[in-house]
């Protein structure tokens, strides 16, 4: 029996889907509805699943399962694992070190097809700071699809036991339940959950059944003629009428296909964001109708450009996001680089499709199985690279401890630890001394194991969490309680960048101080907006809006503080791009003074210090500035130095104090709290 010809129109629909996804990711302002391309992929996948299941052995459930899974996994796994492998290589070689931790975790989820889950606190934190992106975030749709593969053969086997009409009712009922679940769920669940997507797969599933079980559109049965004398004449008339009807039907079908395609393109590429609750079912139904009516469409959906995009769509979907993420982290805002990244994604996808993808699709199932096992092993090794190296070298790195630096360590150890400290920056914000309300280092927590006499608060941006361990160890003896509050990138005395989150945290800090009524407040923060320039024609802090907000917030707080408020003074910020270059530059013989000039950012630093100094003057004797400048100032070179003689950095690439940096300032807090009696 001759195998059915590959439908070019379906590849054309895939082409529209992948182009819309690319447009949404690369140009979201111009194509805010492009995410619907994934919905189209789900409908097409459902159509393909039904076809594969109906071609499988209907009488042997085990055979049906094995045939279905072997065909789908052969298509999906080799390229999927291949792209993850090269993405991990790229992660370690060209991506910022701050991207490592979240992508190691994300790759682990991708390898077991569990990417369709909400972001962790760590991922949210790094992405908010624009210092890391999940390069495997796009694998969520593959996770949804694979998870659906686990249940669709069972659904099909149950449905196949019913008469055809009941089968339709069975599948439609499941689809309706899934759609209802999607409609009542939160946006995150509705987007990510396989149960909220079943109705889209089943739409494609039903479309295949409909296309196979129904007579072709516009076809009718010829009623037998009883008049033998008129038989030949009647037959000729009927044949002529058939031709005319076929032509009319062809025009109708092509017109429907044209308008459906045009409508789909219009909605997907409309530059105005539309409600997903309306768009998602509309796109799903439209895609299903297109599959029915576009079979003979040779002009639009079957044109070579669209169908070729459909052919490379799988490779392009897997490849484009890691490349976009690299652009976002390194060249964000450069539109020319963005377009070049898009073109590079397309070219690389074509190369992969024409070489590796075409090669493995022609291999036997045993070769595919061996290739899959090898790629899985390599990916597991890459995901756990840091732990494997540490074990191999006999290195023990314990989260929550400080630098572990010894006198015997060399510049090679500095390179390794500088990298580890940046990779594990978020994990090191946790302190074993705190019981967290939110389950993570940011937000509010109470320190435990205290027996002093004062109520203490420690507040600030992420520097409050960054300092939590040494603060507890050096100042815990004075406290009967320590309430710690940390808000990422938000200063307690000013709503940084006037962002919505920082405005909320600005109020939250003051409310917690008012409710806690502490004896002492310690404010740990690096300056953000507090260092911004004075407005035009403003020469005094009396007219400075930033300072006036700082002062008002400070006065509200100290009304509820019985003793003192210690405020960490401003210091220069490090240039994060050069932190991991410290050791390589030292090895090349670059003078330390040159590295200092590259590493230390004096921008806005002096104005931030002036504002804090004025705040101390206006505080009525209740505010004390704690200054790190003398600790990092090198009087010999008359500049700040952010690394030690062996190259150990005092900062991570997230511009927190590294474990080495925290040890470097530990004595400051020892001295401060020793004076509190």
TrEMBL record:
<feature type="transmembrane region" description="Helical">
    <location>
        <begin position="336"/>
        <end position="353"/>
    </location>
</feature>
<dbReference type="InterPro" id="IPR043968">
    <property type="entry name" value="SGNH"/>
</dbReference>
<dbReference type="GO" id="GO:0000271">
    <property type="term" value="P:polysaccharide biosynthetic process"/>
</dbReference>
<dbReference type="Pfam" id="PF01757">
    <property type="entry name" value="Acyl_transf_3"/>
</dbReference>
<feature type="transmembrane region" description="Helical">
    <location>
        <begin position="168"/>
        <end position="188"/>
    </location>
</feature>
<feature type="transmembrane region" description="Helical">
    <location>
        <begin position="194"/>
        <end position="211"/>
    </location>
</feature>
<dbReference type="InterPro" id="IPR002656">
    <property type="entry name" value="Acyl_transf_3_dom"/>
</dbReference>
<feature type="domain" description="SGNH">
    <location>
        <begin position="434"/>
        <end position="670"/>
    </location>
</feature>
<feature type="transmembrane region" description="Helical">
    <location>
        <begin position="278"/>
        <end position="293"/>
    </location>
</feature>
<feature type="transmembrane region" description="Helical">
    <location>
        <begin position="305"/>
        <end position="324"/>
    </location>
</feature>
<keyword id="KW-1133">Transmembrane helix</keyword>
<dbReference type="GO" id="GO:0016747">
    <property type="term" value="F:acyltransferase activity, transferring groups other than amino-acyl groups"/>
</dbReference>
<feature type="transmembrane region" description="Helical">
    <location>
        <begin position="12"/>
        <end position="28"/>
    </location>
</feature>
<dbReference type="GO" id="GO:0016020">
    <property type="term" value="C:membrane"/>
</dbReference>
<keyword id="KW-0472">Membrane</keyword>
<feature type="domain" description="Acyltransferase 3">
    <location>
        <begin position="8"/>
        <end position="352"/>
    </location>
</feature>
<protein>
    <recommendedName>
        <fullName>Acyl_transf_3 domain-containing protein</fullName>
    </recommendedName>
</protein>
<feature type="transmembrane region" description="Helical">
    <location>
        <begin position="365"/>
        <end position="383"/>
    </location>
</feature>
<dbReference type="Pfam" id="PF19040">
    <property type="entry name" value="SGNH"/>
</dbReference>
<feature type="transmembrane region" description="Helical">
    <location>
        <begin position="251"/>
        <end position="272"/>
    </location>
</feature>
<feature type="transmembrane region" description="Helical">
    <location>
        <begin position="135"/>
        <end position="156"/>
    </location>
</feature>
<dbReference type="InterPro" id="IPR050879">
    <property type="entry name" value="Acyltransferase_3"/>
</dbReference>
<feature type="transmembrane region" description="Helical">
    <location>
        <begin position="75"/>
        <end position="95"/>
    </location>
</feature>
<keyword id="KW-0812">Transmembrane</keyword>
